[in-house]
Specification:
This protein is mostly helical. It has helices at 3-13, 24-34, 38-49, 54-66, 74-84, 90-102, 105-122, 124-127, 160-164, 198-205, 236-258, 262-272, 287-299, 303-315, 323-335, 339-350, 362-371, 375-386, 393-409, 414-426, 430-450, and strands spanning 147-152, 169-177, 183-192, 209-213, 223-231. The chain has 21 helices and five strands.
Length: 465
């Protein structure tokens, strides 16, 4: 049977797999296909197929088989459809049978070899988080995980307009606790009502301080925290209303997540895996289960989910630690504009402790993260420029713009002031450089006075965590 005959046979039996509710990328690709914009559809299906998205893998195989925006190739088509069938599907199995009956034995052997190759790169085992190791470790092996305990927690301001409306709500945040106990990279996962309390929650959490503890002989790394900041009013009736509202919301999120929506999958993993006291027992997630929901969202092209999943796999949080697999997901997130992922790639690769398979240097990832608006990366980039002997005028200008952007987001700290002073001196502005250096000296004196102080006495924990 000729390639053309095989293609026609498949076309008569199979149509592109679709779902009533799909991710934006998959919906876009399917829309392009039905509009006969085959080049765009092929490109989007290829991107999702390489993330392990089984629907995209099947659809890509059908397009290759039918020669839509590409040369017909039943061997390549068979390989992608067989990859999609790692999770058994009646349509995929039927398509494979049709192609198997049409291909000569030698060509079928080539197709199966190609399928194994694709599986090693883009199969479920290649990309999915593996369960944490359950084998017994020697008694003298350190298995303690890093910990961060809040020692100074600033309560958020309750917006006056929300008080007048008796409006209750919450904001679920992800952030990093740095080795010095400060907070960085605050990111809103979900809030209710949308945007209603975001500003107040972020402003409060950025002032929190933590006591950080690392196991012996481990490198200090940022510790990721997921925290839901509650805006609940006093009184039994209002408390009951709040709990009912929260549970109703998580049930709705779960329903939408189960339908295939990647944003809901990401939100559900974050909330149900962290806010366990308010989540109904049937919907609570273990860290391993949360990673599976993150995987679903990641394979649907959700950048934040790809970042969190990659970070969890890299460090072995709710999964077996697999640095190279974690690096893959971080790269996917970074190339989709997730500045936290490109920053983490810089931190990892600049240490040289892992093979760089991304095709980009650590410095290139830092530049991308800064361009995408990550304040820590903007400061690091500007700081590196300030330490160059002969930075270009363009670099000096960009570094100053980054510092001004950071100033709009948070109060300048010691590193900001030191960087600013050096940049002014490189630009030939001795007056401003001298003024910044005086502020640097003041901040250093304050740091020296506070070095032995603790915030325990000022610790006023919120009503609930």
């Amino acid at each position: 049977m000729s390639i053309r005959t095989v293609s026609l046979a498949i076309a008569l039996v199979f149509t592109l797999l679709t779902a009533p509710r799909v991710s934006a990328d998959l919906l876009s690709a399917t829309t392009h296909y039905h509009e006969k914009n085959y080049p765009a559809a092929l490109q989007e299906f290829q991107q999702l197929a390489k993330l392990g998205n089984e629907k995209a893998q099947f659809n890509l195989g059908v397009m290759i088989l039918k020669g839509q925006a590409t040369k017909p190739d039943p061997i390549e088509a068979y390989a992608w459809i067989k990859l999609a069938n790692e999770t058994p599907s009646e349509k995929a199995a039927q398509a494979l049978k049709v192609i198997e009956n049409a291909l000569p034995a030698e060509a079928l052997a080539q197709a199966n070899q190609r399928a194994r190759q694709l599986s090693s790169q883009y199969g479920q085992q290649a990309l999915s988080p593996l369960p944490p190791s359950t084998h017994k470790v020697p008694a003298n092996t350190v298995t303690e995980a890093p910990s961060a305990t809040a020692i100074h927690r600033v309560p958020p301001r309750y917006p006056g307009k929300m008080v007048k409306r008796s409006q209750q709500g919450w904001v679920t945040l992800e952030f990093d606790v740095l080795p010095d106990g400060s907070v960085s990279n605050v990111h809103v996962v979900e809030s209710f009502p949308p945007g209603g309390f975001d500003k107040e929650a972020i402003a409060a959490v950025e002032k929190w301080k933590f006591k950080v503890k690392y196991p012996e002989n481990t490198r200090p790394e940022p510790i990721p925290i997921t925290q839901t900041i509650e805006f609940a009013m006093e009184g039994d009736r209002l408390q009951q209303q709040y709990r009912k509202l929260f549970r109703k919301n998580i049930q709705k999120v779960h329903q939408v997540a189960a339908s295939g929506n990647p944003e809901a999958q990401y939100i559900y993993a974050a909330i149900a895996g962290s806010k366990r006291d308010l989540v109904p027992e049937a919907l609570r997630l273990t860290p391993q289960e949360a990673n599976q929901w993150l995987l679903k969202a990641a394979q649907n092209g959700h950048p934040a989910a790809q970042f969190v999943l990659g970070r969890n796999i890299f460090y072995g949080r709710g999964a077996k630690a697999e640095p190279q697999k974690g690096l893959f997901w971080l790269e996917q997130a970074a190339t989709r504009g997730e500045s936290r992922a490109s920053r983490m790639l810089y931190d990892i690769l600049s240490k040289g402790a892992i093979s760089n398979t991304t095709g980009h240097t650590a410095e290139e990832w830092l530049t991308l993260s800064a361009k995408d608006g990550n304040p820590d990366s903007m400061l690091t980039w500007a700081n590196l420029v300030s330490q160059k002997e002969n930075p270009s005028p363009e670099e000096l200008h960009q570094a100053r713009e980054y510092l001004e952007a950071i100033r709009k987001q948070r109060e300048p700290g010691l590193t900001w002031r030191e960087t600013s002073a050096r940049l002014y001196r490189l630009a030939g502005d001795e007056y401003k450089a001298s003024r910044e250096e005086k502020k640097v000296a003041k901040l250093r004196r304050q740091a020296t006075r506070n070095i032995h102080r603790t915030d325990y006495e000022n610790f006023k924990p919120g009503k609930r965590d």
